[in-house]
Amino acid sequence: MKKSLLFACVSLPVFFILSIPAYSSDWLQVEDSAGGEKNYIDLASIGYKNAMVTFWARNIDKKGEATRTRFSINCENGTAAMREIIIYGSNETIVKSYSYKDEKLQWGKIPRYSFMNGFQKLLCK
Hints:
Layout lengths: L1 H17 L8 E6 L5 E5 L4 E3 L2 E9 L5 E9 L4 E10 L5 E6 L8 E2 L5 H9 L2
Antiparallel strand pairs: 1-2, 2-4, 3-4, 4-5, 5-6, 6-7, 6-8
């Protein structure tokens, strides 16, 4: 009885730890801005559904502070919306985060000379 209890106490936590999905990022730098900001896209996060593509992007400003944003682009009509944003401080702690439900998304036309246009060119073929 003690052996089976010990086995259960050891194996259950191992099972739950191994069943947690592993998420990895594969960040590709898309562009540098004139102001010293760098924009990246997480290649591992790209998902397509019909004419819609959703992905995570990262922006690092000239102070080294980072923002991660989950965007969706409608490749058919050239619009984009922000789904989620996480703002990090200089010590990589989360300062603020926001998440938007589908019905609250604010879709806007993608400007020709914007960082989002770079993402659109890369993802919408």
